[in-house]
Write a structure and sequence with these properties.
This protein has a 6-stranded mixed sheet with strand order 1-5-6-4-3-2, covered by helices on one side. The protein has a domain of about 110 residues: Histidine kinase-like ATPase, C-terminal domain (Heat Shock Protein 90). A hairpin with a 2-residue loop joins strand 3 and strand 4. It has 4 helices and 6 strands. By secondary structure, the chain is an alpha+beta fold. Helix content is about 30%, strand content about 30%.
Length: about 160
């Protein structure tokens, strides 16, 4: 299946539909089961992969999809470190028959050229693969610029 077959959308929301304590009350949040809520910096990236794998496995994802989610989380967290202020927050939760992986950062937000569907980077390109990988391996991907930075949420449906 081509990455263009996946759902893709850009959101201009100013809040994130993740399970948090900031008063969000939509249906998805009310039914969400928080699996992981972890701040990270560059030295934490490798350990974060293990945490995501363990929680995704316990959530019931097939082993190949656990690997997909680990790759997605790692790429998004790496982007947050490189482009979003050096640190971020990763949240993993179950809702609506899917595992949601959200990465927030405190950077300048996603630049205009990254707000649409990403093209596949060329073989010699030095970067630019993070969002493309997340889109390719997730069932849905949501990008949100907030007043405080950027939020990217990848969704992988349970079997």
């Amino acid at each position: 299946m081509s990455y263009r077959d996946y759902d893709w959308w850009w959101s201009t929301m100013t809040t994130s539909p993740s399970p948090d304590t900031e008063g969000h009350h939509d249906t998805e949040v009310a039914e969400a089961v928080l699996l992981l809520d972890e701040p990270f910096e560059e030295p934490d990236l490798v350990a974060l992969r293990g945490s995501v794998a363990a929680h995704a496995d316990r959530a019931g994802l097939a082993p190949s999809r656990v690997n997909d989610l680990v790759l997605i989380a790692y790429e998004l967290a790496t982007n947050a470190v490189r482009h979003g202020g050096g640190r971020g927050q990763l949240r993993l939760w179950l809702a609506g028959g899917a595992v949601h992986c959200e990465v927030n950062d405190r950077g300048p937000g996603l630049p205009e050229q990254h707000r649409g569907e990403p093209d596949r980077p060329g073989l010699g390109a030095p970067g630019g693969r993070g969002l493309w990988i997340a889109l390719t391996f997730s069932d849905q991907l949501k990008l949100t610029n907030t007043a405080d930075g950027a939020t990217v949420t990848a969704i992988i449906r349970l079997p």
